[in-house]
Amino acid sequence: MLTDTEIAVGVHYLVHLDEQDLGDFSSCEGLGVEVVLESREEGGNNGFVWQFPTRLKYPNIKLTRPVSKQSADKIVNWVLAAVSGFSRGTGHIEAKTADGQTVATYDLNDVIPVRWTGPSLNADSPKVLTETLEIAHNGFANTGSKY
């Protein structure tokens, strides 16, 4: 069990979207938030510029993993469902260690698929085939997750 003082290395990420388990991913990029600032200059005061927070901006999240049977069964079907009557859902990402311990969890609001990129099929360069799922979201949910 991890203690508060131990540093854990996350090696895989478990993803749930709309209560659908999309499986494990080996890379997760883009988790973050940016505070957008508005600058105001005060007349007669040349020493500084006021900075006011206006909104929060969330980058898209890119999830990558080796191609598997889960690719067609889960990812592609979820993305294709966006074409017909799709509504924004919730998402949940768990960062886990090699032995399966959860390091951190991230609950996301209003998740929608942006892009799915399948493997590059090229017989000249044999390597692990990977897929990437890019999702957009509108912020982090409350910490009380049901997963």
Automatic annotation (TrEMBL):
Alphabetized InterPro entries for the sequence: CHP02241 (IPR011747), Phage_T4_Gp19 (IPR010667)
Top-level lineage group: Bacteria
Pfam family of the protein (one): Phage_T4_gp19
NCBIfam families, sorted: conserved hypothetical phage tail region protein
UniProt-recorded name of the protein: Phage tail protein
Source species of the chain: Microbacterium terregens
